[in-house]
């Protein structure tokens, strides 16, 4: 009996390792979304990551922009289902906004993996900086969920004017271990996204929010992430009665705009 149970457990471990990419990156079908949204001003953008992988994104210009924001979406999203949100950020934060799809998502080529996503983010940061006529470290990086971990990886390597983190986590292994307590995920996972370690390389401002009842990324891992922020210019906002994919309440954008207005703001040429 023991041998049967042990063998079954080993099979489960092998399966989880084999399907790690699919579990971490549940890429949505392009057919689910409108790739030609009407009534929204945006530019279709194609650019390349460091290894030559062709990437795709949408740029939302703003002639009166006070700041440049690069948005990193969650692992079950793509550019096309965020058009309304990007338009909202452009108006509410008086910003020029660029959102892109990681490799393997949307109309971007390749297959997703941790190092590749961070390389894609660095390429997107450079594209936006060049478009705005500023330095990469003057771009504000805005990441939701796993996008926050990618944004932190970019900030650790290239800097940022500020980080905006929404329902993100300390380490992806922490989140996985909380959902699969009976599996040694901390030993097996290849995509680890250790934001705690990477924050040691970033000393800039951080505006962070987390839902108290987040069922995907438990609140405690948002707290651990905030404790690792080294800059004194940081803010942690808790939202009650919200889940992982719920939109933030209206006051969120008021607080965020106030935080960003304290920063030096590059203008679009």
Give the overall form: globular
Main sheet?
Answer: 8 strands, mixed
Helix content: 25-40%
Low-confidence stretches: 265-269
Beta content comes to: 15-25%
| Separation of the first and last Cα atoms | 71 Å
What's the average pLDDT?
91
The helix/strand order is HHEEEHEHEHEHHHEHEH
Helix and strand content put the structural class at: alpha/beta
Number of helices: 10
Arrangement of strands in the largest sheet: 1-2-4-3-5-6-7-8
DSSP strand tally: 8
CA radius of gyration is 19 Å
Structure notes:
- The protein has 269 residues and is α/β, with parallel strands linked by helices.
- Helix content is 37%, strand content 17%.
- It has 10 helices and 8 strands.
- It has helices at residues 2-18, 20-24, 83-92, 114-132, 146-158, 172-179, 185-188, 195-198, 219-227, 251-261, and strands spanning 43-48, 54-60, 67-72, 95-100, 140-144, 162-166, 206-211, 234-239.
- An 8-stranded mixed beta sheet has the order 1-2-4-3-5-6-7-8, with helices on both faces.
- The radius of gyration is 19 Å and the shape is globular.
- It starts with a helix and ends in an 8-residue tail after the last helix.
